Structure formats: C-alpha cells, structure tokens
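ok new one. same drill as before - structure tokens go in, u give me an amino acid for every spot. 141 of them this time. try not to just spam alanines like last time pls lmao
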C-alpha cells in the first residue's frame, strides 16, 4: 500500500505521537524466504499484550503461527519480543471480544453492533472472527 512507507517513517520519527496510541510497526522474518519484513498495524493494548487484527486472506501473519520473534516500534521505542498468530475461530472470537471491549468504537469496522451498555454483541463478534486472525504481541517475555 502506498501509505505503508509513510506510516513506517512517522511511527519511527519524533512525530510518532500523532499515531502511536493505536499504530505500531511490526518487523518479522519470513519463514520461507528468510527475508526481513515490516508492516504498520493498528493495535489495542490488553494488559501486557498488544492485539492486532488482520484478514485471513492476508499472509504476513502466517509468519507468527506457533510464535515467532518480532521487533516492534511502539511509542517511539524499538522492542524485541515475541508474537503469536491465532486463526482458530474460538481464539479469534475471544481476542476480538477483548479488542472491542477495550475500544468499542472500532466495532463498526468489524460490522459489529453495540448493545445498550455500549458493548459489542458476542454473536456478531463471532461472525467477524470467521474472516479474521489475531496476532498477540507480548510486551513481557
């Protein structure tokens, strides 16, 4: 995408504060190619974890199935850590529910409605999980 290089630059720059509350860069090594890749992603903090969503039909997240070392640029800092991708619908539903519980205003991007208390509808979260994956980035190893 055309904006990825711009976002990678911005997240690493002194101006990162404009986007760092919800975006980071994740760097990883391709399992087949052995090449280093980096991509900007949206995240939600969940305790000592960062939750990232992606579509099943994208491929970058597959490098983290079963866990993998990653580098993240977060809040102006570079962190060496680990990440694990989850594609099982039950796991994705659980993590996506946590994601949307933290930031319910993101529900519209997942076609999930909010109930009277402003919480995401679990059945719709489960439906959204069918076409998505979750990457959990550990901040503590």
């Amino acid at each position: 995408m055309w904006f990825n290089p711009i976002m990678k630059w911005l997240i690493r720059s002194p101006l990162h504060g404009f986007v760092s509350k919800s975006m980071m860069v994740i760097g990883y090594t391709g399992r087949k190619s052995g090449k280093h890749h980096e991509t900007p992603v949206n995240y939600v903090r969940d305790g000592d974890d960062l939750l990232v969503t992606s579509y099943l039909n994208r491929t970058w997240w597959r490098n983290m199935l079963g866990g993998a070392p990653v580098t993240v640029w977060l809040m102006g800092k570079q962190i060496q850590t680990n990440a694990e991708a989850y594609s099982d619908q039950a796991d994705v539903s659980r993590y996506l529910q946590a994601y949307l519980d933290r930031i319910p205003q993101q529900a519209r991007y997942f076609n999930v409605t909010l109930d009277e208390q402003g919480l995401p509808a679990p059945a719709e979260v489960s439906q959204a999980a069918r076409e998505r994956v979750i990457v959990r980035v550990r901040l503590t190893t």
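The first strand starts at residue 23 and ends at 29. and btw The CA atoms of residues 12 and 76 lie 6 Å apart.
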